[in-house]
Amino acid sequence: MPFSARRAPAHDTLLRDMNVTPFIDVLLVLLIMFIMVIPMATHALLVPVPTGMPPLEMREENVVKIDPQDRLFWNGQNLTREGLLNQLAGAAAMDAQPVIRFEPDGLASYETSARTIALIKDSGVQRFAFVGNHQYRDFSKSR
Fold first, then answer.
1. Is the pTM of this model over 0.85?
2. DSSP annotation of 95
3. pLDDT digits (tens, 9 = 90+) for 67-79
4. Model confidence over 78-92: pLDDT tens digits?
5. Four-CA torsion 57, 61, 66, 67, nearest 10 degrees
6. Sign of the CA dihedral with 120 first, then 122, 127, and 133 last
7. Based on CB atoms within 10 Å of each CB, which residue in 12, 18, 25, 36 is the most buried?
């Protein structure tokens, strides 16, 4: 047989499909490395404990109010943000959590209201309600 007429054996034929198994292995290793390198997200709520201040009354429904001067009130008693955080943490730790009703004045600043809502959310309180939204129904009325 002449040289040009010979055929190559079947095992010498070129593979037409690329082997992607090593590529997938490398991607999985890189994925695992990225997962290990990314720091775990941790969230801590630091609760400052006031000294010498007795805890305020805890009812089944507690009202957090903001007046026009951006002062915070818990059931009608004035307190600081730290005091409010302590009250909220105490309410969140109870087995039967009380309802926290949020009632900002119409002239209270948006920033104080938003920070107070975030504080309530971060405290772990599950039962939360907005009160007095009907007074903001018509924005065209001047006060």
1. no
2. S
3. 989 899 988 888 8
4. 888 888 888 888 888
5. -80
6. positive
7. 25
